[in-house]
Amino acid sequence: MQAARTIEILRTERGLSQRQLADRVTALGHPMSNTMLSRIERAQRRCDADDLVAISEALLISPLVLLQRPTAT
Where is the HTH cro/C1-type domain (predicted)? Predict the structure, then answer.
């Protein structure tokens, strides 16, 4: 649940839509639709380790950041 909220916070802070982030993740070789990302952000879909790593790469952060308590800046 923490990772889901943190992904949403970081995505919006960077001014990215769900589609844009999903496209970045896909471009890195991990196919992801904006629907899939939306479900991850709403904690309706499990965020597997490979999803977590790909999303963190697309956001240019360490995967550990996504596992920390979410904080809005």
Answer: 7-66
Contact at 8 Å (CB) between 54 and 7? no
Sign of the dihedral defined by the CA atoms of residues 5, 11, 15, 17, in that order: negative
Sign of the four-CA dihedral 38, 42, 48, 50 = positive
Of how many residues is the chain composed?
A: 73
Phi–psi pair at 33, nearest 5 degrees: -95, 165
CB-CB contact of 11 with 66 (8 Å): no
- Answer yes or no: are the C-beta atoms of 56 and 63 closer than 8 Å: yes
| The pair of three-digit structure tokens given for residue 20, joined into one six-digit string | 């844009």
Residue 3 has pLDDT above 80, yes or no: yes
Q: Rounding to the nearest 10 degrees, give the CA dihedral for residues 15, 19, 59, 57.
A: -170
**The whole model's pTM is what?**
0.89
